[in-house]
Design goal:
Helix content: 40-55%
Mean pLDDT: 86
Low-confidence stretches: none
Structural class: mainly alpha
Radius of gyration: 19 Å
Strand content: under 5%
Strand order of the largest sheet: 1-2
Number of strands: 2
Number of helices: 5
Distance between the termini: 20 Å
Shape: elongated
Oligomer: single chain
């Protein structure tokens, strides 16, 4: 992994850099930091204690338009990180001579679509 990976990998939830947190857990194209895991644990603990069975509203229902607009770049950055990760996985498969046909089938697209989306332009 390149030396600057800690600057490139960000938490998919809070968008903090890997270097800004104690631990970063990786999933398929996403990452979560120890601080967000702690927050998730707190939320789950509160839910276990709650006796209410009220339906949960989507997060944006309690946000102002400005808060939603401020959140959009974070969502876009996570999407870019996932896209980059997917591109890396496909590139690795190509180094193993896996066909565009098999990659396309795996991603639910045609061979041509996979090639157009992931071919190396170098």
């Amino acid at each position: 992994m390149p030396d600057d990976w800690k600057d490139k990998i960000r938490c998919s939830f809070c968008h903090k850099k890997s270097a800004e947190v104690k631990k970063m857990i990786a999933g398929p194209g996403v990452h979560i930091c120890d601080q967000c895991i702690e927050l998730c644990n707190d939320i789950l603990a509160q839910e276990r204690l709650a006796t209410s069975t009220e339906p949960r509203l989507p997060m944006w229902e309690s946000m102002t338009e400005e808060q939603i607009l401020e959140h959009l770049p974070k969502i876009a950055a996570v999407q870019a990180q996932v896209d980059d990760n997917l591109r890396d996985w496909v590139a690795h498969l190509r180094t193993r001579d896996v066909s565009w046909e098999r990659i396309g089938v795996s991603l639910g697209m045609t061979r041509q679509s996979a090639w157009e989306r992931f071919r190396s332009e170098t």
